[in-house]
Structure formats: C-alpha cells, structure tokens
Amino acid sequence: MSRKPLIGVSACTRMIGQHGFHIAGDKYLRAAAVAGVPLIIPALDELIDQATLLESLDGLLFTGSPSNVEPQHYAGPQSAPGTPHDPPRDRLTLPLIRAAVHAGIPVFGICRGFQEMNVAFGGSLLQKVHEVEPYQDHRENPEAPLDDQYGLSHDLHVQPGGLLDRLGLPPLVRVNSVHGQGVERLGEGLRIEALAPDGLIEAFSVEDARSFALGVQWHPEWKVHEHPHYLALFQGFAEACRERARQR
Ligand SMILES: N[C@@H](CCC(=O)NCCCC(=O)O)C(=O)O
C-alpha cells in the first residue's frame, strides 16, 4: 500500500512571552498538504541529525517569513538597525537546502525560502530592492487588508523551456508581491525561470537537480486552490514528492 509523502516545512523561531517557539504559518502548512502530510521542522540545527531528517522526508518546503537572511551568509553589508533576523533558521535551512537538493529530495522555496535557496547556492541578496535602480517597490502595503497585501500585484514573465513552462504556466501571468529583499547575484547552477517587468529574478530552478528544486519570490501558497497557476506549482512539487515516496 502506498503511503502519503511526508513534507518537512521550515519553522521560524519566535518568543511568546518569555518562551521560545518554532512556528510555521497556517497557509504554508495547508498548501504543503497538497503534496502530503506536513511536518514542521524546528530550527534546531544543533539537535537535528540532518541525515536522519533527509532519510525520513519526501519533500521540503522552505517558507516565507518577515525575517531576512543574515548578510554574513552572502558576504553582504551589515543590515540596517532593526532588521528582523532569525539566526537559528539560517543555521538550519542553508545547509539543509544544499543537502536536500544533493540527495534528490524535492525542494520548494517561497519568498524567504527562495532567498535562502539563492544564498545556499552561493548567491547574494539586495537588502532593499526598492532603493536599487531599475527596480520597483515589491513590498506590500502593511496597512492594507490581507487580501490586498496578497492580491495580484505585477506581471511575471515565464521563461520558455524551463520547469514553470513544463508545469503549464503561460508566458505571462500575474502574481502577488510581498518582499523587500531580492536576488542580487544568482547562485551557482540556478536557472532563471521567471522575471518581473523590472528585471528582478522572481523564480529559479536548480539546473542539475535530480528532482523538483524550485524557488519563487511570490506567494503561491496564498489561497492556493483559487489560483490555478499557484496550484500548478504545488501539484508539480506533489508529483515529485510522491515519486520520492514510491522510491523509498
Ligand atoms: N523578509 C524577506 C522575505 C519576505 C517574505 O518571505 N515575506 C513573507 C512574510 C509573511 C508571510 O507571508 O509568510 C523580504 O522582505 O524580502
């Protein structure tokens, strides 16, 4: 009997009162359930044996987060004072992404997760996209209702012949946009899959990956079942996770 794939979902660390927690957003966990049974992976690199984790999982989803990857990981300039970081998450996710792709485990990175994938493969990040020519402001209005913040915001030019193309995305779609950072230098071995109209890299895949390995800067997990182009990404991820579960 075939069992459902197990999907690891990266956690952020948070303090609630005086206690530390490892949390993952509801929308990521629900969207991960398109591919299998979601399991939150705590940001405890010192306690988690990576090989055991990878042997046990059929896919990994690296989520978005208000925090930014610490710039020391890509030799970037110091962050502006007050920038939110999550060092335990960086310590877990950056090596885990490399190891998972190397092991042929399906990997899907969203927003911060996309930025982590770029850094994991040696790329660097723009810390304030909106302050760099020729880029537009890709941030949401934090005062607006959530449906507006995650509403369709700009065009996306899907590159021909890539993974997004194979997943059935047409050359031009519209996506939401909820980020202040973005790809500066693309990581080694990453293939551009989609661009914003201002030229910002919005999606990449890992060229020599043995399985699904995709990062997207937008949020396909948002109301995933209402957006066929968002759902197509999770269905592609799901198919790869099922294949991995069959092989194990
Ligand atoms: N902090 C980074 C990444 C942006 C990001 O992941 N935003 C999502 C926030 C909340 C969520 O929807 O999970 C940046 O600003 O570029």
From TrEMBL:
It catalyses: 4-(gamma-L-glutamylamino)butanoate + H2O = 4-aminobutanoate + L-glutamate. It holds the Pfam family Peptidase_C26. Gene3D superfamilies: 3.40.50.880. PANTHER family: GLUTAMINE AMIDOTRANSFERASE PB2B2.05-RELATED. It comes from Stutzerimonas degradans. The lineage of its organism: Bacteria, Pseudomonadati, Pseudomonadota, Gammaproteobacteria, Pseudomonadales. The keyword RNA-binding does not apply. Its EC number is 3.5.1.94. InterPro entries: Class_I_gatase-like, Peptidase_C26, PuuD-like. Involved in the breakdown of putrescine via hydrolysis of the gamma-glutamyl linkage of gamma-glutamyl-gamma-aminobutyrate. GO terms for cellular component: cytosol. Belongs to the peptidase C26 family. Residues 68-91 are annotated as: Disordered. Keywords: Hydrolase. Pathway: Amine and polyamine degradation; putrescine degradation; 4-aminobutanoate from putrescine: step 4/4. One of its GO terms (biological process) is polyamine catabolic process. This is gamma-glutamyl-gamma-aminobutyrate hydrolase. GO terms for molecular function: gamma-glutamyl-gamma-aminobutyrate hydrolase activity.
